[in-house]
Amino acid sequence: MWDSTSAPSEEALSRPAGSPAPVHLPIFPLPAVLFPGATVPLHIFEPRYREMVGRCLEHDEPFGVVLIQEGEEVGGHAAPRRIGTEARVIASQRYRDGRYDIVAEGRRRFEILQLDRSRAYLRADVEWLEELEGRDAHRLAETVATLFEGVLESLELAGQAIVDESWKALDPRSLSYRVAAALPADDLVKQELLEAADVASRLVREAELLMSVARIGAEAGAA
Question: Are 189 and 179 in contact (CB under 8 A)?
Fold first, then answer.
């Protein structure tokens, strides 16, 4: 098993007997993290990703969004992190020259087991990750919700639009992902949140980050 900072190996991994068969998924490496329940607008112009999106739309299939670890999104090969999120196209527009504008919604997390570079775009064998709740998740969710409400104005001023208050009724898992998507954190921190072992661990880290946001806001207001 890789550590959290390594890219997936091209070699097949041994799998325990009785494990579910891996799913073969097109992979879109991006300089961003997509969380379950969140959406991302994408302008698709590279031929290889136009082909990928076209296939996904034609067959109503998902693709995987994974943070780039090495390389570039455009041109060449980008090495993805091992944990990503399944994405479904929920809106699309195709232009005459073959480009697409799409909106993709995050669904399930997955772990890459083996990469496949036999096509122009990357594919991988993946397995879905369990969503373990962890200890005291409901209590932690209440704490995070209180902290989140306290910094909403700061987040909105920083450009993180909170469209409505539906987050207040979310279960701990969904709340943890909503907060993760809204936090003004860099991609490595967001990847850390995506990779959290369970909901409770994610909420603990988010409480720390939200308290930092609140402290920075208070210091800025006092200046």
Answer: no
Alpha carbon separation from 76 to 3, 27, 69, 71 (Å, rounded): 25, 14, 14, 7
What's the fold here for domain 137-222?
Methane Monooxygenase Hydroxylase; Chain G, domain 1 (1.20.58)
Top-level class of domain 23-128: mainly beta
Quote the CA–CA distance of 206 and 3 in Å, as a whole number: 22
Q: Are 103 and 65 spatial neighbours (Cβ–Cβ below 8 Å)?
A: no
pLDDT value of position 163: 54
- Cβ-contact 133, 200 below 8 angstroms: yes
pLDDT for 214? 84
Domain assignments of the chain as residue spans, ordered by start: 23-128, 137-222
d(CA 223, CA 32): 33
Closest Cα to residue 183, out of 142, 154, 163? 154
- In this prediction, the residues of the chain whose per-residue pLDDT falls under 70 are 1-19, 71-76, 156-164, 217-223
R_g (Cα) of the chain, nearest Å = 19
Count of C-beta atoms within a 10 Å radius of residue 202 = 27
Residue 157: the pLDDT is 64
Give the pLDDT confidence score for residue 22 in this predicted structure.
85
Predicted TM-score of the model (pTM): 0.85
